[in-house]
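User:
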Amino acid sequence: MLPAVAREVEDFVSTAGWNQAPQLFALVPTAELLAQQPELADQLDPTASPLTPIAQDSLPDAELDRALAGIQWPEVVAGCALAQEIVVLPPEAEAQLSEEDLDDEQARRFAAEHPQRREARLVAAVLRDGSAACVLRLRGDAERPEEVVEHPELAPNLTHALLETLS
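Assistant: Predicted structure:
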């Protein structure tokens, strides 16, 4: 169920293209949402999708970790998902980056200027029970096709931070 919701969020975000700010979604049980808003019955099917992602207001311009640290969800929210664009480096560049003593700005510049970097959109989704799902869409270019990778352990630090918003 959660991997399907993460894919749904990524599909929704991808309709607006690339170069977007991070987006946060509340994951609300569809049946509860329909009980509160019956006018949505023709748009939502609780048997097809037990959770409905609801886009939230834009995140503050602060660092993402600080923004997430200030979020606490009400009990009606079963989980949350975050979509953000990132740069992915090949393993040898990651190793080089970890060996050098760079501050955050230098590390960002290193990643942005690396010739083998790939732009990607990461969606991480979590539920109150601790389960997680991640979807990574690697942006295609003239040399490489677009790729989609799914695995719950793609972004352990991010899923942990999202779980903290639910406690």
